[in-house]
Design a protein that fits this description.
Helix 1 packs across helix 4 and helix 3 crosses helix 4. With 318 residues, the chain is α/β, with parallel strands linked by helices. The strands form four sheets. Strands 3-9-2-1-12-16-17-15 form an eight-stranded mixed β-sheet, with helices on both faces. The longest helix has 27 residues. Helices cover 37% and strands 24% of the residues. The two termini are 16 Å apart.
């Protein structure tokens, strides 16, 4: 691997996987387990920015607020995104500092709370589509529906709460991130996609109660700090044509035109892989050298051996 600048996007589900109690002890444990690729990238001299998701965590925080609303003043969703960026950043930063020290890699880690610029008139704000929190049981679904909170059945019997998700336009603190990364610091930024904000002419920046997709934000951040590579780590080993069908086929390499063609069709469905491919294609279209989508344990292999692991998107096929 030739060291350069890389943005790594790590999903919130990697820290709080489905089917397990999301205790803080479990989340610290999974965080420690997920950071081995980052340590190796640091050892290799890469300039690293780490973006993480917060879907399960911000949903839980929102539920905590609502359960305690008669005791303490609840916080709005946009503020909770910032809150998860803070405590999850602390968790990742501490875990990564410890892992680097054990590996004998002398790199510093910093968490920066960043704001994601969006359009206040984005039509996505009127139609909640992004799942947050953990799967709901029948009682929880009924209670949310009674309050008019949108929910969706992702799979048979698996319901999730939905929240608005505007399209990100830019990162307010991009110059600070670029400065820190170029100085050799590992920067944890845009946590949970970053709390979304818009520009109000008289007031300046104002918050939005929504959650921005972290992969799309990672692609924009990569463009704005001049990163060469975007690495999206997920729980699927590659992008698949016909995913979920008997004829599904892993796609190891895609040109930008092929990625656009795949997105124009219906093979990706509406699941979580579509925004990842959209983000990867957007990063390459904006000047990035390559974007890689890979399962967490295969991230380094996908970077080092293009075409053998994960899915790599480039301007043209190599």
């Amino acid at each position: 691997m030739n060291p350069g600048s890389i943005v790594v996007a790590l999903g919130g589900n990697a820290v709080a996987p489905p089917g397990e109690r999301p205790t803080i002890a479990n989340q610290f444990r999974h965080t420690r387990e997920s950071l081995a690729p980052i340590v190796e990238l640091a050892r290799g001299g890469w300039h690293i920015t780490l973006v993480h998701g917060n879907g399960p965590q911000v949903g839980d925080d929102l539920a905590r607020n609502e359960l305690a609303a008669d005791q303490v003043e609840p916080l709005p969703l946009g503020v909770l995104v910032a809150a998860t960026a803070g405590w999850m950043g602390y968790m990742i930063q501490q875990s990564l500092q410890n892992a680097l020290a054990r590996a004998g890699v002398e790199r510093t880690v910093v968490t920066l709370i960043t704001q994601t610029l969006c359009d206040a008139h984005d039509r996505n704000l009127r139609t909640p589509t992004k799942p947050i929190g953990h799967p709901l049981d029948r009682v929880q679904v009924a209670r949310l529906q009674a309050r008019g909170v949108p929910v969706r059945e992702e799979q048979a019997g698996r319901w999730r709460r939905l929240t608005p998700s505007p399209v990100p336009i830019g990162i307010v603190e991009r110059h600070m991130i670029r400065h820190l990364v170029s100085a050799g610091h590992i920067v944890i930024a845009c946590g949970g996609g970053g709390p979304p904000v818009y520009t109000d002419p008289p007031l300046g920046l104002e918050g939005i109660d929504a959650v921005v997709d972290k992969d799309r934000v990672a692609a924009i951040l990569g463009r704005e700090i001049g990163a060469q590579v975007l690495l999206i780590l997920t729980n699927v080993d590659a992008v698949y044509r016909g995913f979920g069908t008997p004829h599904q086929t892993a796609v190891r390499q895609l040109s930008l035109a092929e990625a656009d063609q795949l997105l124009a069709g219906s093979e990706l469905g509406t699941g979580s892989m579509r925004p990842k491919v959209e983000a990867a294609a957007a990063f390459v279209r904006s000047g990035g050298e390559r974007a890689v989508i890979a399962e967490l344990s295969q991230g380094l292999a996908a970077l080092a051996r293009e075409g053998e692991a994960g899915t790599t998107i480039t301007q043209e096929r190599g």
